[in-house]
UniProtKB/TrEMBL annotation, chains A, B:
Single annotated GO MF: DNA-binding transcription factor activity
UniProt family annotation: Belongs to the LysR transcriptional regulatory family.
Keywords: DNA-binding, Transcription, Transcription regulation
Organism lineage string: Bacteria, Pseudomonadati, Pseudomonadota, Alphaproteobacteria, Rhodobacterales
Coiled coil ranges: none
Domain HTH lysR-type: 1-61
Species this chain originates from: Roseicyclus persicicus
GO terms (BP aspect): DNA-templated transcription
Protein name: LysR family transcriptional regulator
Transmembrane segments: none
Length: 296, 296
DNA sequence: GCAAGTCTGTGAACAGGTGCACAAAGATGT
DNA sequence: ACATCTTTGTGCACCTGTTCACAGACTTGC
């Protein structure tokens, strides 16, 4: 159906360009006997003469000239392709796919915006989905993951920062129920997670230390949890970096070690070395300082 | 500068198309180990990863997708090229270059016109030049030659027809000088060739049998010779097929064997088998019957 | 959850292609 | 007209790249 040996076309192309087998052989860096054999094989395969042989060299026939023009285009496109691929490693363009926890979006998105301002040719796709996106299938370039250190062999994992949380309630709630320091756990109303076996360490702590009966409100996102706390529904976890509209809230217990969650920056081994991923990862780790969170 | 191994791009193309090394190997008709080595070599040469390897196969990276689109175009163009080259052998299109003696143009051109009417896609270039065009350099597809049988090894030569000539003069001339049958050669006025050593057999005969003093008019073309005869300048050769405006001329001597010139149809070995050349040559030999000339 | 199937990956035997040396033929320059 | 140079063409030794066989890892169906 389609051609079997593209190299032979390349050889024939150089012969047509140079006009001689010897010249083509020198350009191609092979012996002239090889060139002759390539041409013979190609002609045999096509069932048509591509060149007229004479003592001064090879002159292309009609078919040979046709091949010349086609192969010239191909050569052009391949050189351009090679240039693009080689060059692409050094520039930050194209698409960057980042998968992250939705909870971190308020933190992450402004930083990504700043990154895009520095690299105008970059298109970004931020995926915050329940399901785990697999870097090895090329579904994402960079993943921001929480929890235990992933042990995927092809992934290069580096610590991003440590997310510490504050257990808070509204001033209104404290007026009615007091803080945890003053009262019993059983007398309080907690905001928990929908999942029975949550992976977040603070919810693990909650499951372990708070009876289910005291959990009056269960949510799926940190955003909902924060809103619930602000509404005075109960005691809930709020990220330490989330200072927006938390002035009216009070900490009902000093932070515990058990609540802190390590956040990891994960890239695929193959993509980690590329400039696009590298600069993005470095930029993100720089931003951490401005976020006012604990470094990992 | 440009790519060294086009076959590797072809391999990578199939891998990108199929998604797996094994699938590509089957399509390419090689072992899958070969495919892996090609990809590895190509990636090493480009300095960039083209695919992400995982247990379900190879998924192309950004660079791999770029290669996919480029190589798809290439594959298309190569298949089209092969189709054109293979098909070209069966059809009579493109350009047909014929080199001939200018003297035969009045005979040849109408026939070529008829041939072109049968093959509308054919463009023809008729070269009637002093210098000999060399078929082995692809300068012409078909050559019409006179004289001795050429012995070029790569040329396939076949007899076309035998050009016989008539030695004629105007009625007016005969009234003044008589014919050759009635008078001496020395008393006549001949029309000869400019060249000292003419290749045409009838001029060779003229040189041998007519003293230079009797040659009063020398020309470079048969057309000029005919005009000279018609003007009553002297005795000259006119092709036997040339009946146009020769009614007022009289033959001053019956045709001799020495005057006849064999006309050859010459093609290059490589091109002789092609349908374009074949049909043209056959058509020409058919036309000979209508020309009213002696078959060779 | 286990087994079958599919995929990638790698070291060793093998073979097809490559390079080499030499020959022949035509072109070129003196 | 001769010698020199360039070019194509070919048989043989060698080496690169291919095939083969096997292993390992993951996916998938039962």
């Amino acid at each position: 159906m389609s051609f079997d040996h593209w190299d032979e076309i390349r050889t024939a192309y150089q012969v047509a360009r140079m006009g001689t087998v010897s010249g083509a052989a020198e350009v191609l860096g092979v012996h002239h006997a090889t060139v002759i054999r390539h041409i013979d094989a190609l002609e045999g395969r096509l069932g048509a003469k591509l060149f007229q042989r004479h003592a001064r060299g090879y002159t292309p026939t009609e078919a040979g000239q046709d091949l010349l023009t086609v192969a010239a285009q191909t050569d052009d496109q391949f050189t351009q392709l090679a240039g693009r691929i080689k060059g692409r490693g050094d520039e930050v363009t194209g698409e960057l796919i980042v998968t992250s926890l939705d909870a971190l979006s308020p933190l992450l998105v402004p930083s990504i915006g700043e990154f895009m301002r520095r690299h105008p040719d970059l298109r970004v796709r931020l995926i915050t989905d329940q399901r785990l996106f697999r870097l090895e299938y090329g579904e994402a370039h960079v993943a921001i993951r929480a929890g235990k250190l992933p042990d995927q062999p092809d992934n290069v994992v580096q610590p991003f920062f440590t997310q510490t949380l504050r257990l808070m309630a509204s001033r209104d709630y404290v007026d009615r129920f007091g803080t945890l320091e003053t009262g019993n756990v059983e007398d309080h109303r907690f905001i928990g997670a929908n999942e029975d076996t949550p992976r977040a360490p603070y919810f693990v702590w909650l499951n372990a230390n708070v009876p289910p009966a005291s959990v009056y409100f269960r949510v799926s996102s940190m955003k909902a949890a924060k809103a619930a706390v602000q509404a005075g529904i109960g005691i809930g976890f709020i990220s330490d970096w989330d200072r927006d509209g938390t002035d009216d809230l009070v900490e009902v217990l000093p932070p515990l070690e058990d609540w802190s969650a390590k956040i990891w920056l994960v890239t695929h081994m193959d993509l980690h070395r590329t400039a696009k991923v590298q600069t993005f990862v470095r930029f993100l780790k720089d931003q951490v300082k401005d976020w006012g969170v604990a470094l990992a």
